[in-house]
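Form 7-S
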Amino acid sequence: MRCRHCGGDDFIPFLDLGQAPPSNSYLEAEDLTRPEKRYPLVIRTCTSCWLTQTEDFADREEFFSGDYAYFSSFSRTWLDHARTYVADMRERFALGETSLVAEIAANDGYLLQYVKQIGIPCYGVEPTRDTAQAARARGIDMIEDFFGRDLAARLAQQGRQADLVAANNVLAHVPDINDFVAGFANLLKPAGVATFEFPHILEMVRGNQFDTAYHEHYSYLSLLAVDRIFRANGLSVFDVGVTPHHGGSLRVYACRADYHAHPVTPAVASMLSTERQAGLESETFYAGFQTKAEAARDAFCRFLGDAHAAGHKVAAYGAAAKGNTLLNFAGATARDVAFVVDRNPAKQGRYMPGSHIPIVSEDRLKSEQPDKVVILPWNIETEIRNQLSYIRDWGGQFVTAIPKLAIRN
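Output:
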């Protein structure tokens, strides 16, 4: 194993979740009797550059196929975040009708729809067919391809360099992180800005968010690691902020290193200091996470066993990748969780990978009235609890497993 950034070969263990199928590879009924692909889900930290990363066993096309089923627009919380982001970026960087905005990993147009609504020219890059088609249905210009140096160079030659490039929850999803980051130095105009949002490994460890680990997440990021990667690939970090999304994320602002068009704010040094003080450049920080993950898994297994013994029906909400990580690490099946509700029609009628739990619409929840509803995407727990508040009418309770088991009315 070689580090995907620096090429080093000295690693320390971080997390081993055993064998698991790709988290977004949902199954059809006919797939249930066929052998299912599983890969080791092993994560290690490079002691040379402190980038935490998966050990790879499959190509990216295995995880980001044409029928990739994650659509960003089904979370109201995330849509609100996107709308606010667009308004903030417009004001801060004086974007207008003569500007150009691009989004890398634009998914179903959840963010660019708001750029388009305020009259700013925009386009998206998205490698997965179904989500790109959903964005086109919103009238958004989409390039269906994986992003990197080559694509960025072609776009620049076509006069499509951007004033703002958004990259939300994609930096962790790229196997060749150097190639990916270097593309931004080509895609940005001389005074352009790129923003990157990603779950913060500091919060992942503090919150025992082991279910954030899945094969599509190749890297688990800190500002310390990101700053090194950017400097090596033609970008300069000039600001950083925090958001509550996905259990605690960083938003990093970067510009071309050859122009330094934006002054560095004190927030950068402050966050780097916070990470160093927390020990992110020491082996101690990464030790013990495996034990914490196993403790949360064992508590969840006990809950499922107790519910079964008591004759309680357990269902779940949100066929999210993090939910698949939890269910497969716990060895759960449809015997333990009767069904998973999801609002995304692309997932309904299919089955969760590994656990083979059926994915259904919300009508099933109302008709069967389970005793317990496990919220798998705990990062939007408040939104889901408000949406499903009616389960209290029959005495139903909500359950979360991260950071530790909690049962609430």
